From TrEMBL:
It is found in: Membrane. This is Mn transporter. GO terms for cellular component: plasma membrane. Its main location: membrane. InterPro entries: NRAMP_fam. Pfam families: Nramp. PANTHER family: NATURAL RESISTANCE-ASSOCIATED MACROPHAGE PROTEIN 2, SOLUTE CARRIER PROTEIN FAMILY 11 MEMBER.
């Protein structure tokens, strides 16, 4: 009997953090892995402070967007469109910018996954491994079929599985490689190395963690959960779980690279090269674990990405979110076809991923400023307007978003 009660409590706890798990699966993908590994390889733990700030501000914005949805019953873009001056133009800009950024990310994700599966097949069977074109084709068909016959609850379960796989994989490799914890602590002190490319990586850290897309999707996922204002405490706990897990996973990835590649004086230019470097350190077992973790992370981000365009349109128009409707199925089909993008581009998938994450940082102010205006609007929020602590946090987020957006623009210029 006690075992049944304990099991039921675990199930209940998991059900409370459904949106957080969904966003962990969405946010901690190949973009995060590539970015954090590259940062760790090139600068050790020197930029940990940027990750800490990004995760704190991620929590602040997730709570803010979740709260506006709980109070109004409407999703983010719908509130921006109808409650802010020039809101329609801003909402259209957000939709276009997010879709472009996510398409770039999707191409990089499929490119990295295909490369890793090819590497895994090479380790298992020898030779050159499976063709990346065939790998991509199988993945596109399989994932779209799952989307076609699935629903939100199935997606949530699939994402929970891959998040668990990803966590276990990287924790195991982290333990096997035993990185130096003193380097992690020293990286908390803010510093910016005077080297070319560092601003782009700081912007990418912000973009991959404090992602503009996450906060817009956050309101949609909370709405899908059917929560109301009475669930505000659960929404805050869920946001804390999500932001904390994002930090833990990200810092583990960074530390693994810092404790190996950085110490060896090597820079990460290709994800497959990272696997090959870990092979002599931890053997083929470490290589397979890393492949499973990164592939799992990549797959966990595909579903939210192919849903982002129809979700944003539903958000903008206020129409029901029905993933079995023709609009959802057609847009998801068009979206997943971009998975073949790296088969035709003369560029390395990790570079596409870092670029897409830095691009996210560029559009962060466009989602940070509107929620500050919304959550302080008494007409919208009634008795639930932001307090002093919330406003201090949101102002800090806005300043951080402007700084990282400047880093992104300055580096590319």
């Amino acid at each position: 009997m006690k075992d049944n009660v304990f099991f039921k409590k675990i199930i209940f706890a998991i059900s409370l953090i459904g949106p957080g798990l969904f966003l962990i699966g969405y946010n901690i993908g190949t973009g995060s892995i590539t970015t954090m590994a590259k940062v760790g390889a090139e600068y050790g733990m020197m930029l940990t402070w940027a990750l800490v700030l990004s995760c704190i501000f991620t929590y602040v914005l997730m709570v803010a967007y979740g709260k506006t949805t709980l109070v109004t019953g409407n999703t983010a873009l719908f509130n921006i469109k109808h409650k802010l001056k020039y809101g329609t133009a801003l909402a259209v800009y957000i939709i276009i910018a997010l879709v472009i950024g996510e398409i770039m990310a999707l191409m990089g994700i499929f490119g990295i996954i295909a490369d890793l599966i090819q590497e895994g097949s090479r380790l298992l069977f020898g030779g050159e491994g499976f063709s990346t074109l065939w790998i991509t084709s199988v993945l596109v068909v399989a994932l779209y079929l799952l989307f076609w016959f699935g629903n939100y609850l199935i997606f949530e379960k699939v994402l929970v599985f891959f998040v668990a796989l990803m966590v276990i994989s990287f924790v195991v490799v982290f333990i096997m490689l035993k990185p130096d914890f003193s380097t992690i602590i020293s990286g908390m002190a803010p510093s910016i190395p005077n080297e070319p490319g560092v601003l782009r990586l700081i912007a990418a850290i912000a973009g991959t963690t404090c992602s503009a897309a996450v906060f817009i999707i956050r309101s949609t996922v909370v709405a899908e959960k059917g929560w109301g204002i009475k669930d505000l405490k659960n929404e805050k706990k869920d946001s804390m779980v999500s932001a904390t897990m994002m930090f833990v996973l990200s810092v583990i990835i960074m530390a693994v690279a810092a404790g190996t590649l950085h110490v060896m004086g090597l820079k990460l230019e290709n994800t497959v090269e990272m696997i090959k470097l870990f092979e002599p350190i931890g053997g083929e077992l470490a290589a397979f674990i890393l492949i499973l973790g990164i592939v799992g992370a990549g797959i966990s981000t595909v579903f939210p990405i192919i849903l982002i365009a129809p979700w944003l349109i539903s958000d903008f128009t206020g129409k029901p979110r029905n993933i079995k409707s023709p609009m959802y199925r057609w847009l998801a089909f068009i979206g997943i076809l971009f998975g073949f993008g790296m088969q035709f581009l003369d560029a390395r998938p990790p570079m596409i991923m870092v670029f897409s994450q830095a691009f996210q940082a560029f559009i962060l102010p466009a989602v940070a400023i509107p929620v500050f205006l919304l959550i302080n609007n008494k007409t919208v929020m009634k008795t639930h307007v932001a307090g002093l602590k919330e406003n201090i946090g949101l102002i800090a987020v806005i300043l951080f978003s402007l700084l990282t957006a400047y880093f992104a623009v300055a580096e590319f210029i």
